Amino acid sequence: MSDKNRDLSPKEYAQILGRLSVPTDKPMLLQVSRFDRFKDPLGVIQTYRLVKKHHDVQLVLAGGEATDDPEGKAVLSEVREAARDDPDIHILLLPPDANLEINALQRAATIVLQKSLREGFGLTVAEAMWKGKPVIGSSAGGITVQLVYGVTGFTVNSVEGAAFRIHHLLDNPEVMTKIGEDAKEYVRQNFLITRNLGDWLALMSYLGRSG
């Protein structure tokens, strides 16, 4: 029920995308993460360029600066340079409280990427899955816990692997829809507070019976 995850109507998120100057006339590849080398934004741009050879897509990189990383400004500068002169790459530097904006971007996205080189749980993966989106992520950290290969998304190990999976999904929209549906249900069953509450109730019930 938070602003980042509550339901938004297509009209609502279209208005937010309009404020962000992100068009809605092309399929959107999206990565939401801070501009940090460990999130591999340059690798995401390379992936997009491979996909662009066969599909007319746009790329949105959205997030904040890595203020705890002395290289943060340099990474953002490199990303902007890599995206220079390509009107289909949109780099959005968002404030920490841009929850509605992230929600709208995730709901408008066609495919969500999380191409981290290192990662904890990777909450943006679960957020995108909850919105019924297929996610392509790297085989790093908690991403592998969330992405059941070929069921709730795909894990990859390279730029080429990510581009291949994006091609596959764009060429097979029925597969993309099914993965999105299964991804949302996987989050519902495994990562919501209701599941955690159910676990505690089951434990207390078991202890009460055995005691």
Task: Write the SSE topology.
Elements: H1 10-19, E1 28-32, H2 41-52, E2 58-63, H3 72-83, E3 89-93, H4 99-108, E4 111-114, H5 123-130, E5 135-138, H6 143-146, E6 153-156, H7 159-171, H8 173-190, H9 193-210
Helix pairs in contact: 1-4, 2-7, 5-8
Briefly summarize what is shown:
The chain is α/β, with parallel strands linked by helices and 211 residues long. It has nine helices and six strands; from the N terminus they run αβαβαβαβαβαβααα.
Q: What does this protein structure show overall?
A:
With 211 residues, this protein is of the alpha/beta class. The protein has one domain (10-210): 3-Layer(aba) Sandwich (Rossmann fold). The chain has helices spanning 10-19, 41-52, 72-83, 99-108, 123-130, 143-146, 159-171, 173-190, 193-210; strands spanning 28-32, 58-63, 89-93, 111-114, 135-138, 153-156. The chain has a six-stranded parallel beta sheet with strand order 3-2-1-4-5-6, sandwiched between helices. β5 (135-138), α6 and β6 form a beta-alpha-beta unit. α1 (10-19) crosses α4, α2 packs across α7 (159-171) and α5 (123-130) crosses α8 (173-190). The N and C termini lie far apart (37 Å).
Order of helices and strands: HEHEHEHEHEHEHHH
Instruction: State the CATH superfamily name.
Output: Glycogen Phosphorylase B
Number of domains: 1
Compute the number of strand runs.
Answer: 6
**How does the helix and strand content classify structurally?**
alpha/beta
| The CATH C-level class name | Alpha Beta
Please describe the biggest sheet, giving its number of strands, its sense, and whether it closes into a barrel: 6 strands, parallel
Beta-strand content bin: 5-15%
